[in-house]
Amino acid sequence: MKIEKILIVADNSPASIKAIQYGFNLAKDMGAKVLLLSVIQAGSAAGNPDAGIFPDDALAQLKEQVANFLQQAKPDDVQGIDIETRTPVGEILPVVVQAIANWGADLVVAGTHGRTGLSKLFSGSVSESIIHHSPIPVLIVPGV
Q1: pLDDT at residue 56, rounded to an integer
Q2: Nearest 10 degrees: CA dihedral of 75, 63, 110, 14?
Q3: What are the structural domains of the chain?
Q4: pTM of the model
């Protein structure tokens, strides 16, 4: 199986930064294209109308911050790698599964925070959800 397209799922955590580095190293070694994806959860940009910050403005600002993070998180040596970045708004799992299908990814790379016990029970595990719902292989990079 030839890996031609790697989908890297990222947020602004240390685990994701490590996964981004790993994903780009794989892409460089395999001559693969990269889709760097960071999903913005719909409720994360509610704004504050009393302070003059409306939801659309808050969302636009958050999208800009996430796009800047993705730009800064790219490794220095990405020459020769075809890179696309996306910052869609929605629920993480459905957006990732849809991106896999629409973009035609061959591999997903994601980081894990390594939560266990109660913190995992209450917050869930995005990487574990991706593993269970992805139609393609998923490479999980530990954050520690």
Answers
A1: 74
A2: 60
A3: 5-142 (3.40.50.620)
A4: 0.86
pLDDT confidence bin for 117, thresholds 50/70/90 = very low
User: At residue 118, what is the residue type?
Assistant: L
Alpha carbons 144 and 128: distance in angstroms, whole number = 17
Tokens of 31: 């001559």
Residue type, 32: A
pLDDT of residue 143: 74
- The tokens 């955590």 sit on which residue? 13
Tokens representing residue 11 in the block: 């947020």
Residue that has been written with the tokens 């996430």 in this structure: 66
Strand 138-142 relative to strand 5-9: parallel, antiparallel, unpaired? unpaired
* Average pLDDT estimate for 104-121: 70
Report the interhelical angle of 92-103 vs 126-133 (nearest 10°).
40
Side-chain half-sphere of 71: how many Cα atoms within 13 Å? 6
